Amino acid sequence: MLINWFPGHMAKAGRLIEENLKVIDVAIELVDARIPVSSANPMIAALLGDKPSVVVLNKADLADPKLLDIWKSYYRERGRAVIAVSSKDGRGVKSLVALVRGMAAPKLERWRARGLGNRSVRTIILGIPNVGKSTLINRLAGRNAAKTADKPGETKGKQWVHLADNLDLLDTPGVLWPKLENQLSASRLAATGAISDTVFDMEEIVTALVDELSQRYGEALKKRFNLTNLGDTPQDTIRAIGQKRGAVVAGGKLDFEKTYKLILKDYREGRIGAVTLDWPEDFTTDEENTGADDD
Ligand code: G4P
């Protein structure tokens, strides 16, 4: 199956982000901690060039703590600043501001040395849809509704939110496109809800999800759905889950649609547990870091 919901304004979105980045000193690259590689934009490294940036593993509350540590080491080993946050409840957000301030310090120092001490360092939040950009902006700005751009790359007039001494954040996030070049990442993006439910094949996504969960989080899956054993195949497990939950139609047949939906809902709400789908070993060396596999 090829998920191809995004029509192809990628070059335009890239140019708009590039334009915004001209006035930015330190960029914040937001990814979903449950799928740090799959939710990274494939071209971000090229867009950032040598601009200082920090990788933020957001939705850390939904991710496997063991994998959070592994991913943090992974990025650090590759010379990237990285931090895990939970924008929804605010965990890690103050540390993020401190980290960005620290990264901006050399620039502030240079400005001071040149007598330009009152300038503010500027930051922007970049990421694909649904990684939590607006939630993080609102958390940082201490209010309820961020101005969200509708389309990847689009920014409506520039407004800045004051975060700390000499540190401002662009009020509108840079929206990038998701990574849909490979099936593994596309499927995981769909499972986490980053791709609209209306454009993917529910059966394939849930089958792939249950397959992955069975291999890496089998105990959590059994516990959540009160199963003694997992099935021999993901379809068997899905059937067992549906039966346990009473998802049947007239005549006692299993209601697959309903079963797929309830599994996805439970997964997205973290009810199966703190689960990370992307593991470093899933990605080949040419996809390392931000997945720059698409030149
Ligand atoms: P975006 O701007 O990047 O598109 O993402 P947005 O902030 O709209 O967040 C997308 C969804 O992710 C929202 O859920 C939001 O609440 C949730 N979210 C953001 N950060 C976190 C986090 O750190 N942890 C958790 N658990 N969820 C997070 P929603 O279902 O679309 O809306 P709602 O539940 O807030 O009503």
Structure summary:
With 295 residues, the protein is of the alpha/beta class. It contains eleven helices and seven strands. Strands 1, 2, 3, 4, 5, 6 and 7 form a seven-stranded mixed sheet that branches.
Question: Which properties best describe this structure?
Answer:
alpha/beta; 295 residues; Conserved Hypothetical Protein Ylqf, Chain: A, domain 2; 41% helix; 2 domains; Rossmann fold; elongated; disordered N terminus; seven-stranded mixed sheet; 11 helices; binds guanosine-5',3'-tetraphosphate
Structure description:
This protein is an alpha/beta fold and 295 residues long. It folds into 2 domains: 8-171, Rossmann fold (3-Layer(aba) Sandwich); 201-278, Conserved Hypothetical Protein Ylqf, Chain: A, domain 2. 41% of the residues lie in helices and 12% in strands. The chain has 11 helices and 7 strands. Strands 1, 2, 3, 4, 5, 6 and 7 form a 7-stranded mixed beta sheet that branches. Helix 3 links the parallel strand 2 and strand 3. Helix 6 packs across helix 7 (202-216), helix 7 crosses helix 8 (218-225) and helix 7 (202-216) packs across helix 10. The longest helix has 21 residues, at 93-113. The radius of gyration is 21 Å and the shape is elongated. The two termini are 23 Å apart. The relative contact order is 0.16. Mean pLDDT is 88; it is low at 1-5 and 287-295. The site of guanosine-5',3'-tetraphosphate has 16 residues, from helix 5.
